[in-house]
Each structure stands twice: as C-alpha cells, then as structure tokens.
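Kindly inspect this chain:
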Amino acid sequence: MNDYVEQAISFYHPSQGKTGKEMTSPDYVQLSTAAAITLGLMPGRMYRVDCTHCLNLLVTYPEGCRANCAYCGLARHREEDREFNARNFIRVDWPTARYQEIIDRVRRGDDKGRFQRMCISMITHPRSGDDTLLLLEQWVKALPHIPVSILSNPTTMERRDLEALKRRGAEIFTVALDAATPEVFERTRGAAVKSPHEWSHYWRAIGWAAEIFGPERFGVHLICGMGETEQEMLRLVQRIRDMGGRSHLFAFFPERGSMMEDWPAVEQGQWRRVQLGRYLIDYAGGRFEKMVFDGKGRLTDFGVCREELEAYLHSGKPFQTSGCPGSGAPDVSACNRPYGDSMPSDIRSYPFSLAAEDVVTVLRQANIEY
C-alpha cells in the first residue's frame, strides 16, 4: 500500500482504542503519511527525501465528505468501502491524531524544525468551516512563526468565511478547482456524478480570495490529465496569474477505489510540457499568448528564446512539486507532497531538487525541442 516508502511500515495511531466515530474534528485531524513520518508519529523512510516541509492536515468526521468527485479517494460513494478516516487521499493513507498532540510535538521540535508551513484541508461537511476556524486559531496562538494555508471548500463558503479566515491569521487561501474546463468539472465533480460542486461557485471563491488575501496570497489547485488539452490548462494558469494568484499542479494518477481508478495516468510528455509552461507563466514572465499550440492543443513553442528555455530546463525547478511557498525561494514549494501523484519509479512531481540525471530523464519525457 504505501509504495513510496522504502520499507513496509505500520501506522501508528496516537488514539489507539478510539473508533473512527469518536475521532472527529476539531479534537482530531488526519495528517499525510509524509507529515506523520516527519513528526515521528510513524516509522518509515521516503525515497530520496527525509521530510516534508508542510504539515498537511485534513478535517475528519465519521460521516465523511459529502461530495462525490470521480477521482477522489474521499468521495461519498465509498461509504461502504472503508471508514472515512481510513481512506486513502492523493495516493497515500492519512492517519488520525489528536490535534493538541500534533501542536505539542511541533512545539517540542519533534519535526526538527523542518516544517515551514501548515495547511488545513477542508472537506464538504456542515462543520468543516467552523472547525477549520478553531484549528486555525489554536495553531496561530501556539505556533505563530509557522504560517498557515487553507485548502478550502467553496461549496459551503460565503465571502464572510474568507474574511474570518484572513482576520484570524490564515496567510494563504487556496481553491482546489482541479478541473481546467467547465466540461471536465461537470463530468468529474458536478451534477454528472451526483456531487454538489458548481464551477461558478468555485470561481466566485477565487475572486473573493484575490480581493481579500491579495496578490501572491492565493492559489488554485489543478489536476493535469483529466481530459483537458495543454492549451486549455495553460490558458487557465494565465488567467489565475493575471488575477495575482499561483497555480499548484497535480499530475492525474488514478486513485484506488475512485470512480476514475481505471482512467490512465497523465501522459509524461503532456505533464512535463504543462509543468514547464506553468513555471514560465508563474515565475518567469512568460505569457500564454506567446505560446504556440498545434491543432490538438499540444504545446509546441513556449514563447521564450532558446537560451532562456535551456536555463529553466536545466535548473530542474519547473518539475518540482508546486504549492504554497516556504522560507526559501518563492518558486520552491514548502508543500512538496512526496509521491502524492506518482510512484518513485516514475516521479511526476519531484519532492526534492533535481540532480543532473533527473534532468536528463525529464528532458527525454518532455520531448521538447529547443
């Protein structure tokens, strides 16, 4: 099951003896496998990386998420499959822990000072908004030096909710739009799959985030490979950048137990070209309008000179995990999500700086002429 660690590991639940129905937010949260290893809550070693710099947390309830997104391991249709707080999400398991224990461990330095950011992920649940505020307040009071991002659920939110999050200390607000077009959105997370999400509601929240949190303080998650073209994806990346935000890319990888578990993973060349195009738009002054696409929407010209393109390719940065920044360079994500969208044998989002041999692999996969 966790094929991104080098050896088999057994999950450690600090709340042993509790049932899933008792372990609910705000007293309990789930945390990513990488965060649990970094914090010392479970044993394990990750391939070529020893930690994550972002403590990714997920609110949890026995009823689970009320949405039914076709690609998600937390979707409502899995109610009889696995208890909610035992389901996989972005390819890995999320053990449950008492929130105060997590805070105490970070305060003691059990993470060896490696967390540069904390992120609270909401789900579609009536209590998710209020509990996220409570979790945020506790964190800011106890650990004000570690900034907080919110991965939101626009379906249950109003403008006043974003204002409250900003007022109470959230630094960055992100929206998991995921789909690059209204058609893909409807097919994967709208009425077509009996899910409550609406494209217009998500864009309303993105607009609010731009106004309330401001430039460089909001982001949009996008999944590459769900049926959109490279042209459609990068057009959207440019739209978000023009609003002042950043795009956080995920490579589609079929989640076991989801409705799209038989959908193929995003093609390597498509993914690498979109990664590079997104990096140029978000961090190198590139413009979608200067890029050239063929009749199938495939990117054929990045709109920058050969020397520039070569420099960015060999830096390896465009191919690292994209997400909210840490304490270093703004184009290096604290949220490195080790192997959240691929296996170590075929890395899609590199959770570490690329070595020379990694760059060679990426160039071969991208099939880019320069």
